[in-house]
Every structure is written in structure tokens, then in C-alpha cells.
Write a structure and sequence with these properties.
mainly alpha
Length: 351
Amino acid sequence: MNFAGQQKQIETAEALAPEASPIDGSKPEAVPAKSGMRGRYAWLGTIASLAILAGSLFVLWKLVETVTWAEMHAAFTGASAKQLGFAFLFVGVSYLFLTCYDALALRQLKLKVPYRTTALASFTSYAVSFTLGFPLLTAGTIRYWIYSSKGLGAAKIAALTVIAGFTFWLGMGVVLGLSLIVEAGQLAALTFTSIALNQGVGFGALLAVVAYLLWVSLKRRHVRVKSWRLELPGASVSLSQMVVGIGDVCAAAATLYVLLPAGTSIGFTTFVAIYVLAAMLGIASNAPGGIGVFEATILLALSSLPRDQVLGSLLLFRVCYYLVPFVIALAMLTVYEIVKRSRGARTRGAP
């Protein structure tokens, strides 16, 4: 799942869409002057993100300063073949769901692109942006590089990115809401909150998802950014997005869950809520993959477990979910470019 950059999807559209006409073919409207209020307080979001990142790194440092390199190495290399096998299985499932993000977006936009192209573009863009960060640049460039060869313009690729973002947040909202309600008691003990607070946030998250589904069911809705207009998916596509998002979040959480120390007594439903909270804080920090923030949150929530072993599991999770797919994505992009150039050379050389 994408820890960082999902809240930037609208900005992606704003950056790309002006290069082409609006998707619905309507005439561009006059671009309104930027709000003075927006410009004046835009820096607050950056400061908040930096504060979250700095605070989390400080907490992470305090949590691991008593862990020795020998303990961490032992925990990192202590995973069994069975644990690693299940971890990579869930990584594959998660990235498979990520390809469905793009597939559903293309369906909403009524664009026909072969699934092999969709899978290549989505897998490589997510794998690279998860590791390098800067998703507007990395993921956006890769998507444009691959989809433009199939005739998609900048505006449609921006629209695809926005719809994929809705898929992510629908899944996150449902998983967070259900886990907070079902495991409110155990989460209260782990996170030092109250049962009522957890259940209240859980019901609030589910109500937000239900309200969105009802909102897009009543009539056609759209998002407008300056002169760019995007029609939002209706109820049927939104429900499909919700299912895909849930699958992605649960598979990503399961990857880390199976790598936790043997004998972990925390149930998967409880862990999913912790995972989602850590992921959301990572998103707020804008750090690549939520690095530092994600680890600090997990370590705090799982403070009852051996710290060195949990840290080893987190490092192994980074390798399985980020580093390995990143290397595979680079290899796939290299092969794609070689094949593309080879075909182009044959075409030019044909009589």
C-alpha cells in the first residue's frame, strides 16, 4: 500500500491537466485567482509534516538506543523460511491489488488498455515511488512513460491517478473503522486511549465512507480543479474500489504481521488498526514510505514485545515490501525500454 503521497493526487491533476483539454470535452473555464488565504497558510502543512517526522524520528531514536547491533542483526536474520514465504506471498497479493487501482480507474474513464500494460505501469510506478518518494515526480513520470505509448494524454493520466487515490482512501477508511470498532478494547490498552474514543473514530470513519457512497449514488458527481473536471465513479465502481482498497491494506498489513516475533499474542484485526494508524501518520509526514514515523508508531504500539525483534521485523518488512519490488521494477522498466527501442528500430528498418 502507498504510505506517502496519496494526499497529493489532486495536486498531480492540477499539475498535469492543463496540458490537455478537460476530459469531458467541455470548454475550459476562466482560471480563478489563487486564494490569498491558501497562499498565506500553505506553509502550515509543510511545517506540520516536518514536525511529525522530526518528533517520530526522536521517538524512534529513544526507543532503539538500547538495542545493540548484535541483537538487531539476530532479530533481522531470525525469520524462518516459512515466515519469509508467507511475507512474499502477501507482498505479491498487495501489489496485485495495486494493479487493480489503475484497472478500475481506466474502467471509470472508459479507456481500453491491455492489462499487461496496466499491471506494468501500476506495479513499477508504485514500487519506485514507495522507495524513492516524490510520487508526483517518480510515479507520475513512469505512468506517463508507459501509458502515453497507448495514446493516453497527460489529463487522462492525471485523472487515473486521482481515481486511484480514492480507491486507497476508501479501503483505508473501511479497514480502520471496522478494526477500531471490533478491537476497541485491546487497542485502548495498546495505544493508551479509551474504548469510547476508538469506537467513536471507527464509526466516524465508516460513516464517512457510507456518506461518500451515498453521495456518488444519488447523481453524477465531479471534482473540479481550475479548468479541469473529473467525473467521480458511481456506486458500483466505488464499491469495487472499496473492496480493492481493503484487499491491498490487509495484504500489506499481513506482510508485516507474519514477520513479527513468534508467539505474538496480538490478533490480526487489532494489528491492522495499528498498521493503518502508522501508515496514516507516515502519509502525514510526507517521508518516503513513511520511514521513521511508521516504525516509531509500530514500536510504541507493540511495546509489550521484545523491541529488538520488532525492529528486526520492521527492517525485514522494508526489504520485502519495498526493496525487492523496487529492484524488480527497475529490471522490468529496463527490459520494457529495450523491447520498445528494438521494436521501434525494426519498424523504421522495415521496407
